[in-house]
Amino acid sequence: MAIRKNGIVVLGAVFVDIKGFPEDIYIPDGRNAGTVEYVHGGVSRNVVEDIANLELRPTFLGIVDDSALGEDVIHKLKNHKVNTEYMQTIPNGMGTWLAVFDHNGDVAGSISQRPNLLPIMDTLEEKGDEIFAEADSVVIEVDMDKDIVKKVVQLCEKYDRKLYGVVSNMSIAMERRDLLQKFDCFICNQQEAGMFFSDDYSEKGQEELQEILADCLKNGNIPSMVVTMGGKGSVYADCEGLRGFCPPKNVSVKDTTGAGDSFCAGVASGLTYGKTLPEAVEIGTRLAASVITSSENVCPRFLPAEFGLEM
Predict the structure, then answer these.
(1) pLDDT recorded at residue 253
(2) Distance between CA 166 and CA 226 in Å, rounded?
(3) What phi and psi, each to the nearest 5 degrees, are found at residue 302?
(4) What angle do CA 163, 164, 169 make, to 5 degrees?
(5) Interacting residues of 114 by C-beta distance below 8 A, sequence separation 6+
(6) What's the rounded Cα separation, in Å, for the pair 37 and 76?
(7) Pfam families, per this entry (predicted)?
(8) Cα 94 to the chain's mean position, in Å?
(9) What is the pTM of this model?
(10) What integer pLDDT is reported at residue 295 of this predicted model?
(11) Distance set, CA 88 to CA 14, 60, 202 (Å)
(12) Pairing outcome for strands 95-101 and 224-228
């Protein structure tokens, strides 16, 4: 399958992730010796770099600061073969995520500051037709400004492009519920799924969650959805009755940051380039496993053929 000029188009925010790791057992109310790392982050930024690491040449519609750090973000994306020609550089264009991890590699606490993404609307108004006409599919953070999400839905319908949704803030994403009927697949975690359907899924096993998800999608007329369950794997379903479970990979965990983003990248890549939903979820699971074994936010380099993608 040939890749169009813009490949998979990804829209969303760029963050600077400040991550602290303890040397020993993490004590929440004490002083913890350890290391602090600064990493390029943001759900969509991670997703687009993960897709690029599959040698799939994606395009990113995002914003960076007019600073050396912003230049570094664009430089790194270009080195990974991401098309950055539609990115903007403005003051305070990036967000910040501050997180402390415990000795198991899980987030013990975090604070984030979101950037203003409305300038992306200007890009869509001016060059949206040019971008989407040469796109293979589109991935967007559902919690972006509603006008941006509406515009993306309109452009996907106009050019018959598949649309995939990922979330960084479910409280905001719930306000876009009516638009999710236009998405081909929505990806979130177990807690977020409970928020989305106004229920508590934290104690649900994979079989029960599959059944609940299939019913919710049918009743809500949402095409398909994948729900990650952390170290327990993931479940998936569509509104036509398909449902299933994908077990996790058994790997040593250092840092779970970015695992959900790489999972999304794998699912979107698989669905874009001819894989079924179960096959795409397997690709996402493999990518997520490759991320959690290091402190990096993204997966290492792979070739498309390693996942059965014949480009």
Answers:
(1) 66
(2) 10
(3) -135, 165
(4) 130
(5) 13, 95, 169
(6) 17
(7) PfkB
(8) 17
(9) 0.89
(10) 60
(11) 11, 10, 39
(12) unpaired
